[in-house]
Automatic annotation (TrEMBL):
Entry binding sites for FAD: 94, 158, 187-189, 358, 364-367
Cofactor names: FAD
Chain ranges of the Pyridine nucleotide-disulphide oxidoreductase dimerisation domain: 392-501
Pfam families reported for this sequence: Pyr_redox_2 (PF07992), Pyr_redox_dim (PF02852)
NAD recorded as keyword: yes
Disulfide bonds: 85-90
Record keywords, A-Z: Disulfide bond, FAD, Flavoprotein, NAD, Nucleotide-binding, Oxidoreductase, Redox-active center
Top EC class for this record: oxidoreductase
Protein name: Dihydrolipoyl dehydrogenase
Miscellaneous comment: The active site is a redox-active disulfide bond.
GO molecular function: dihydrolipoyl dehydrogenase (NADH) activity; flavin adenine dinucleotide binding
Keyword Disulfide bond: yes
Length: 511
């Protein structure tokens, strides 16, 4: 379990703690006193719950709390709801992935299907507009859901004044403050910068710049071959950039990706035109000229090289974001990775302050943040909640997609677990064959003795949808035989899933 268990402080009555807080606040902080006097209507009533951050973790928790009948407010400083995911993450990147894939398909994959296409042109401005339309539709949708569920939306930056009071610097100008019996911190994460390279989101970019470039770069270097780097790299590669990915590790996709699958997707992306430099360390960068020069060295020392690029994408990971939150005013500290430390019920050492999403432990994924939003409210309202951290799927939305859930082969080997492996190629699946889209495999790993599924790893068309079945199987403790004996519609890609399960407990039929 990755959470550290903290001793629980003796519960104070809400009234006691609010009064106590007010006293120390009055005594210690004249600045915030002044802010409170200039407050707005919302400060008049004490909320049951205030959530700082309107990203996936925060907005889901707010809606769930509203549904449970709590008096709830959500503070968001961005001006739109949905956080990184809806504004600059999952959604805009998938819009660009989808449309760049269509463009690439029309350019390179129509002739043998009997479709002759005339002059194909990229209109990057319209491609970006389509992305913005999806984003604004979805973020406005969350505002609608807030209204529907009685959530008060406060647009501004929240900072702790004391354990029950959050001051808000409002976007529209002015300040207010809110008091609450309970507070959730859901402030998310930010891109980790690369030392020595100044991010200007034009020449040296993070994923935020990568979803908004105004022209296709000639040469792009991606520092970091994890999911975000590969997704954004493949968007710009499809649109015509010469993309080189520099990765410190010996495999792409990050350590969670099964090594066999990682090798396969690397080959496929190489075939699509991307270049990879693995086991390679970026030493420094020089962005003073028209292009950016990146100096690299073999990870184990030795071979040096300089890469030249019009645009460098820094994709070396994300770090928890707590800047300006006033944690010092309530004595909360972060660990060495910047994460807020919590117990199994998402509580900090101040029990009525909980933390959910990217800003605390676990994979930085939107669906993980969402699960925590629901569970944290349930812990608050019912005393129990449920998130199975062993069954959180990961998806990389390249083409083909890569998706997995549970443990990979290298993890099982390292843990000394005896397992069986079975796989099935899409090249033997009837639907993949009719779609002329046959690259990839489905691979099951199950316990050698009990056949209980330990992990499922897919590279292939629609892997991101297919992994839901594997996740459900894992959640219910299914065996590969359970899946193999379940009827799957014909002709579908999901038959490859069933056949891989068959290959694990016995033999596949069609391969
Ligand atoms: C390019 C990219 C692609 C991604 N694609 C996927 C994907 O396909 N699938 C997936 O599962 N995950 C994806 N992710 C990760 C996903 O976006 C995050 O895991 C998710 O957004 C985390 O949600 P969160 O609510 O914890 O944090 P966030 O979404 O970061 O939300 C936190 C919010 O808090 C606000 N905030 C911070 N401090 C304050 C404050 N003091 N006062 C008020 N507001 C504050 C911020 O403005 C922000 O809106 C992607 C991320 C990126 C960058």
């Amino acid at each position: 379990m990755f959470r550290s268990i903290l001793p629980r402080a003796a519960p104070k009555s809400v009234l006691q703690s609010v009064r106590g807080a007010q006293t120390s606040f009055r005594a210690s902080n004249i600045y915030f006193q002044d802010r409170l006097r200039r407050g707005y209507a919302s400060e008049a009533e004490e909320k049951d719950l205030v959530i700082i951050g309107g990203g996936v973790a925060g907005y889901v928790a707010a809606i769930k709390a509203g549904q449970a009948g709590l008096k709830v407010a959500c503070i968001e400083k961005r001006g739109t709801l949905g956080g990184t995911c809806l504004n600059v993450g999952c959604i805009p990147s998938k819009s660009l992935l989808n449309n760049s894939h269509l463009y690439h398909t029309i350019l390179h994959d129509t002739k043998h299907r009997g479709i002759d296409v005339g002059d194909v042109k990229l209109n990057l401005a319209t491609l970006m507009k389509a992305k913005e339309t999806s984003v604004s539709g979805l973020t406005k949708g969350i505002e609608f859901l807030f209204k529907k569920n009685g959530v008060e939306y406060i647009k501004g930056t929240g900072a702790f004044v004391d354990e029950h009071t959050v001051a808000v610097n409002l976007i529209e100008g002015g300040e207010t403050s809110v008091k609450a019996k309970n507070i959730f911190i859901a402030t998310g994460s930010e891109a980790t910068p690369f030392p020595g390279l100044t991010i200007d989101e034009k020449k040296v970019i993070t994923s935020t710049g990568a979803i908004a470039l105004q022209q296709v770069p000639k040469k792009m270097v991606v520092i970091g071959g994890g999911i975000i780097g590969l997704e954004m790299g493949s968007v710009w590669s499809r649109l015509g950039a010469e993309v080189t990915v520099v990765e410190y590790l010996g495999q792409i996709g990050g350590p969670g990706m099964d090594a066999e699958i990682s090798k396969m997707i690397q080959k496929m992306l190489t075939k699509q035109g991307m270049k990879f430099k693995l086991n390679t360390k970026v030493m420094s960068g020089d962005d003073s000229g028209e292009t950016v020069k990146i100096s690299t060295e073999a990870a184990k020392g030795g071979k040096e090289e300089t890469l030249d690029a019009d645009v460098v994408l820094v994709a070396i990971g994300r770090r928890p974001y707590t800047s300006g939150l006033g944690l010092e005013n309530i004595g909360l500290e972060t660990d060495d990775k910047g994460r807020l430390v919590i117990d199994q019920e998402y509580r900090t050492k101040i029990p009525h302050i909980r933390v959910i999403g990217d800003v605390t432990f676990g994979p930085m994924l939107a669906h993980k943040a969402e699960e925590e939003g629901v569970a944290a409210v349930e812990f608050l309202t019912k005393g129990y909640g449920h998130v199975n951290y062993g069954a959180i799927p990961s998806v990389m939305y390249t083409h083909p997609e890569v998706a997995w859930v549970g443990q990979n082969e290298q993890e099982l080997k390292a843990a000394g677990v005896k397992y069986k492996a079975g796989s099935f190629p899409f090249s033997a699946n009837s639907r993949a064959k009719t779609n002329l889209d046959t690259e990839g495999i489905v691979k099951f790993l199950s316990d050698a003795e009990t056949d209980r599924i330990l992990g499922v790893h897919i590279v292939g068309p629609n892997a991101g949808e297919m992994i839901a079945e594997a996740t459900l199987a894992l959640e219910y403790g299914a065996s590969s035989e359970d899946v193999a004996r379940t009827s799957h519609a014909h002709p579908t890609l999901s038959e490859a899933f069933k056949e891989a399960a068959m290959a694990t407990y016995d033999k596949a039929i069609h391969y």
